[in-house]
Amino acid sequence: MPTFLHTADWQMGRAFTRFETEDGAALVEARFEAIETLAQLANEHQCDAVLVAGDVFDAQTISDRTIRRVFNATKGFTGPWVMLPGNHDAALAESVWTRAQRLGAVPENVNLALQPGVIDLEDQRLSILCAPLTQRHTYGDLTEPFSGYQSPEGFLRVGLAHGSVQGLLPDEIDSTNPIAPDRAKASSLDYLALGDWHGTKQIDERTWYSGTPEPERFRNNEAGNALIVEVSEFGATPKVTSVPTGRYQWHQWRETLAVQSDLEQLLERLNALPESAVVDLRLEGSVTLAGEETLLKALSVAEARFRSLGCERSGLQLTPTDEDIAALKADGYVGEVVESLRERQEGAQDDVARDALAILAGMLREREQEVGQ
Amino acid sequence: MKLQRMRIEQLRQFRKPFVLDNLQPGLNLIHGPNESGKSTLVRAIRAAFFERYRSTAVDDLRPWGDSAAAPTIELEFEQDDRTWRLTKSFLQRKRCDLAVGTETYSEDDAEEKLAELLGYQYPKRGASKAEHWGIPGLLWVEQGTGQDIEQAIEHAGDHLKSALNSMVGEVASSGGDDLIETVRSQRDTLLTGTGKPRGDYLKLEKDRAQYELEIEELKERVHKYQEQVDRLGKLAQDYDQAEAERPWEDAQRQLEEARVRYQQVERLEQQQNQEKATLSQLQQNHSLLQQNKEHLEGLSRQLEVRKAELDRAERDLSVAEAQTPAVTGRLTEARTAYEQAEKQRKLAGLLQTRERLEQDVRRLEQQKQVLTQNLAKAKEYHQQLEQARQQARENRIDSELVKKLRATGNQLNEETIRSRTIATRLSWQLDAGASLTLNEESLTGQGERQLLEESTLVIPGVGTLGITPGGEELASTRRKLKALEEDLDEQLKTLGVESVEQAEDRLSVFESAGRAVKHADELFKSLAPAGLEQLVSDQKEVDGELEKARTQLEATPKPDPKEDVPALEEAEAAFTRAGNALDKAESDERAHQSSLSALKQARDNAKTEWQRLADEEKSPERQQQLLQITTDLANIEKQQAELEASLERREREIREARPDFLRQDIERYQNAVNQLRQTQENRGRELRDIKVRLEAWGAEGLEEQLNEKEAEYDQCNRRYQELHRRAQALDLLLNLLTEKRQALTRRLQAPLQKHLNHYLSVLFPEASLEVDEQLRPGTFARGTELGQITELSFGAREQMGLISRLAYADLLREAGRPTLVILDDTLVHSDSDRLEEMKRILFDAASRHQILLFTCHPEKWQDLGVPPVDIQASKGQSMQSQE
């Protein structure tokens, strides 16, 4: 009986705006590598086909180069691929798909499900029931016609769709492109391969979101996998195995520093992360001038180690201690200025005052070092 | 600080050692003329403090031409209750030694110690300049620079502040001003003086705006792209639907139907037009027949007209015939009158002849008597002459008369011959035994007669024939002939001859006799010109003539005296008139006759016309024609009625078919077909256009570009935000630092102001001089006068400068700092009043500070109340003490 690989939401052509240029480029590159990884996995698991449940491309108008590279990346697996247009790459009158076809970029073993209907993979004895998006937004259930689709005798019926299974996903997910929760059962599907939700998620025993193969945001859990689906016999519950494919792990930490040990613990945790981490730190609370110095040093080291490190410290107040000020030798009216800045920072949560204090502290520290030398 | 003693050696003009001692703690007046070395002393004090002992830039200290000199200065002063001794040598022997109480310093240490004490700095290299002089620069006034207070204060700046620090407590920061400068320089890399972004910050701001613009553009283009994609989808759907439904074919079908209907109507209209033409022809025909009918019916009327014309012709003729007797009567009358006139004229001629003859008789009788008397005288030639005369007498005739007679005779003959040619010729050839009577003349056999007058021919047993000769001339010829005959007769009678031939003969005899008489007479006259014989012959001639006259008179019938005979001329005129009248009457008569015959002709013509018409009117063909026309007319009217009914029917049919609407339908359907096809073609074209456009746009990878651009924007924005925050922080920091520092300065302002006012009240009782934040004297006010110190006169500025320096000296003294005031030839521009006030001020200041006043005008300072020191004199003392 056939085995196939289920993936979705490649979002090719996306740029990562929040990162430095170099990091963004590496993350983009990782997404191309993910496709190659998928092809390799399909070979390893002797899959009969690879099903991509929508959003192969992040947008309709992306460069020819990206289009060609996406299809080139599939070359590792020579068996059939079925790609479904999703909401980002809907099969409009003119779409990224029509362009890909015009460019001659689509290999023969890649099937584009640009119209609703059934793609029968004769050799693999697979009937792929496709519900492509042909408009940007759909408010009806595109999988509804699945019940009416016939499949040849002895073929597995596998649904391929992109959208939100009603009532199961968090409310914040866009409710367009709805899919009935019992679609697999209602339309006698052996398996329903879904896309749109970027984390790997099981809906029922025959219905899964594969998630994106390479994470691209901090929000989703369980991103960076592909699903290997095996069906032992007709009517049998498919065996679904989640295989990790992601190269980078995305971490978003929101921490509040109050006492010295908080900072120490944070730095320990940071040190424990692998180098393939993409880290987003948001710090709040307060830190002494000495503490900040420690933090800045640690962040500087971490920046060099990780793929990407972002740290938002505007919520973190500087609270110079008397020792801090004594160490800085801020006498006379400069001492008055330090005091004034500290008051403004605490009283009005004034970022500017915080920054000014940091700069002043830096300058004084430098001066002390010069004097010390 | 009290300077107590100074000694200089090998320094400019002081080649030998020079000592100035016994300097007082207060005011010291040191004077000397120009070139005496006053300025050298001032220079020496400055060099001792400001110039590095190892400086190579102090050549000015060397005595002129002395390259081996080592200019040396020794100073001794008291400060902090300790005695300070400074010995400084330059050039050839570079040394610096300082002894403070029991401590000694040398070289750089010594110099640093001095700089710290007085508050100045050394130049890194070269000669010391104003900016290095610090506090001494403020208190030691060089010649001619007393007014330049601002520069001096600026150069003293930091030294002043740190010097005054103790006065205002622990507020000044160590290195605070450096910090401010660092913050300012860092801030100024990001912000302009007015707080606008600059440098990278500005560039980022601009870049960010540029990115925003580009992103907006890209978004707009993506939006356009999506619109076009939507349009493409919609178009493709519409196009396919239209291709499937083909609405233009329906419209085409409707168009064809409308055309067929319209063609039917057009055919009806054609028929209508044809029938209208037919109707028009019928109407024309009817009109023609009607005319014919009227013509035929008009013949009887014409006949009446003709009859009237005939009647009129006959009436005219009868009128003319009625006139005939009158015309004839007038002719007869004229003829009668003519004959009467002719008779009168004959009578008159006769009467005239008689009168002439009677005259001749009387004349001849008288002549005869005369001749008889003369007869006796001519006897001799009498015989001869008598004979000839006898002969002549017997045959005397007038040759002229004979000639006239002959002419008349010839004329008569010619006229007679002519009359014969025009006279009616009557010829006859009668059977034997038969006879005719012409004018009572019987005619037999054969013959001929010319008839000039009306003649009567009687044919026995038959009757009488009247012959009237024709021709106009005949009558006049006849009358002429008759006149000629009578004339001839008259002449014959006058000549007394029977015929013309007789007259001719007699003339011939007479002429021969005459010739004989003439011959005899000539003889007689030659013999006796008076001529008896001529007389005798004359007598006899007269007798003969008389006789002849008497005979003629007797032969001439005597007219009836009762008869009234007019004169011959009158008679002849009447005769001519009568002739004319007769001619007129004859002409009238002829005109009448011709008029008559013309009228007759007219009458005949009229009659013929009338007759012809009368015949025609009564002819059966005309009746037949009339009948035919009436039938035809009836037929035509019937046809007309039928046609009109048919026309009306068809007109209604056409009207009900609404051809105008049909035409509009055709146009509408035609438009619809065109428009529908056009729409579809347009769709096709737009589809192709959009596809091409989208292919081009799609190739640009707009959304990917947008993504990348947004990433760049984010980075730019992050960097911008960083710099923005940094700029704000630096700005805040700078403001705070400056603020705090200014607060400090303001705390120093008050005491300085106090000292300044102290001196100012002496100089200008009502004036005020404000000290600004830089501790410089700024705004000067005196009464209503208000202005900066720099706007004052040179003298006033110098005075202000001096009191400001003294105020600083007071402030420094309060802060426990050393004060020494050196004035080199100052206040030279002050007037005597002002100088007086300044002396009071100086005297007052000298109670707190040592003041060295160098001058070359000691007389101006006599009333200072201190003993002046004369340099020249001191020089001498120095020399002496050395010796």
Automatic annotation (TrEMBL), chain A:
InterPro entries: Calcineurin-like_PHP, DNA_Repair-Maintenance_Comp, Metallo-depent_PP-like, Mre11_N, UCP033093_metalloPase. It holds the Pfam family Metallophos. Coiled coil: none annotated. Keywords: Exonuclease, Hydrolase, Nuclease. Residues 3-94 form the Calcineurin-like phosphoesterase domain. One of its GO terms (molecular function) is exonuclease activity. Gene3D superfamilies: 3.60.21.10. This is DNA repair exonuclease SbcCD nuclease subunit.
From TrEMBL, chain B:
InterPro entries: AAA_GajA/Old/RecF-like, P-loop_NTPase. Residues 1-415 form the Endonuclease GajA/Old nuclease/RecF-like AAA domain. The keyword Cytoplasm does not apply. GO terms for molecular function: exonuclease activity. Keywords: Coiled coil, Exonuclease, Hydrolase, Nuclease. Residues 539-565, 583-592, 601-621 have a biased composition (Basic and acidic residues). Residues 201-398 form a coiled coil. Residues 539-566, 582-623 are annotated as: Disordered. This is DNA repair exonuclease SbcCD ATPase subunit.
